[in-house]
Amino acid sequence: MPAVVTGGVRRGSARHSDVAGLGRARAGAFVAPALALVGLFLVFPALWTAYLGMTDYRLTGLSAQAPNFVGLDNYTDTLTDPAFHASLRLTLVFVLLSGVLGQSLLGFAAAWVLRTTNRAVKSAIEFLVLLAWIIPSSVVSFLWIALLDRGDGTLNAMLGTEGMSWLTQYPMTSIIVFNIWVGTAFSMLLFSSALASVPPSQLESARMVGASTWQQLRDVVLPHIRGHILTNTLLITLWTFNTFTPYLLTAGGPNHESEILPVYIYKVAITGGRLGVGAAISLIMLLINLVIATVYLRVLRERK
User: For residues 243 and 236, what is the distance between their CA atoms, to the nearest angstrom?
Assistant: First the structure.
């Protein structure tokens, strides 16, 4: 009799765990298309990149027809290459200034100001900010080149600095400001949603006891939106780390002064034809992204 009860409990537990009532076979068939897409577009390219990174594959010549297996040589050469170190440093500066600080702080400031702004004005500002985000990168880059052009640039005409070549004299500053202008819309929208979840009664209570704006932010707002801040920082960091758009402005120049990692990989793999080395750098870049994502997710879990 106990065995029957035990068996009944087990069968009941199995039935209760299968909430949808599909069974293993049908549940597997249900998720199979999604798993196939993940394998085709994520897992296979990653494995193929790892394989190419261990060959001397080139776009032209004998190595293009019959690449040789070189093991970890591409990875060790890359990690000891001063050009890679310089590009990595530029990338970290670019991510910190244009993403983590620039887009996040400006997006939060815009969301904070707009929460008490007239609805018509708020809608107009949101439209203009979103416009910078949804316009294709090629179009936005053309507009910025026209803005910063040495001869007939709009910025030179406004400042009276005819002949100033912003893109060659201040390449990193130019792409940092450009990326802030393009990507702030996402942070603004995310923080607008986060601020809407802060109880107005708590802000009102803080104002009644004489709390300053900074004290309201520190003691009321930030504890409520800490998870949103971490989520925004994670996404902005990864997007900025992998963006290729600055190439359309400076092409990594002059003299490699704005050659962030995506641009560096493009020049090595496509322009230079060393696809194997480019694949090795891409895998290293992927591992850096995984480390960044793991750190952020761990901090987010601890905060929760």
Answer: 10
Tens digit of each residue's pLDDT (9 = 90 or more) over 81-96: 999 999 999 999 999 9
Report residue 19: phi and psi, to 5°.
-60, -40
> Residue 17: its pLDDT value, please?
61
* Cβ pair 166, 174 in contact under 8 A: yes
Confidence of residue 42 (pLDDT cuts 50, 70, 90): confident
Q: How far is CA 198 from CA 11, 137, 228, in A?
A: 46, 34, 12
Its pTM stands at 0.85
Token pair of 147, please? 């803005």
Spell out the SS3 assignment of 97-166.
Answer: HHHHHHHHHHHHHHHHHHCCCCHHHHHHHHHHHHHHHHCCHHHHHHHHHHHHCCCCCHHHHHHCCCCCCH
